[in-house]
């Protein structure tokens, strides 16, 4: 009974939280994150206010340190926006993706820009790894569409130094076949 009541409350409150929090917006005035990738096709100014993505509730990694970071662990946060992006990758099946670690002020989060031109639905898993070993993972349902979309983790307080974060996105068919793996720190030209 408690689980049912919790699910109902979550279903009512979550859309308001997403609408209120939303992403911070583009990492630079041009709307293209700065970093390794050029973000030619997936990152147009199509997301000027940011998209909410279709991620499920994050599931922090279990472990003795899985609690939220204390104020002493959070970095002071530089002023301005931060973005560290890997290259834009394309699979032979028609999936395009670019994964970034984004930050604004004291917050850091992971985001994957993607386009699913496969003709069928896909599942994406985006994992953000913090420098202290904690992880946040979201699953995103990726409908077939030639339009770009995003999957992102919730914004969270930056731990230690902003540059110590890594994000990895894995996109698979509904049968579980891995189609594309994209990372925020992938060297230019490396796929998979």
From TrEMBL:
<feature type="compositionally biased region" description="Low complexity">
    <location>
        <begin position="58"/>
        <end position="80"/>
    </location>
</feature>
<protein>
    <recommendedName>
        <fullName>Serine/threonine protein kinase</fullName>
    </recommendedName>
</protein>
<feature type="signal peptide">
    <location>
        <begin position="1"/>
        <end position="21"/>
    </location>
</feature>
<keyword id="KW-0732">Signal</keyword>
<feature type="region of interest" description="Disordered">
    <location>
        <begin position="24"/>
        <end position="94"/>
    </location>
</feature>
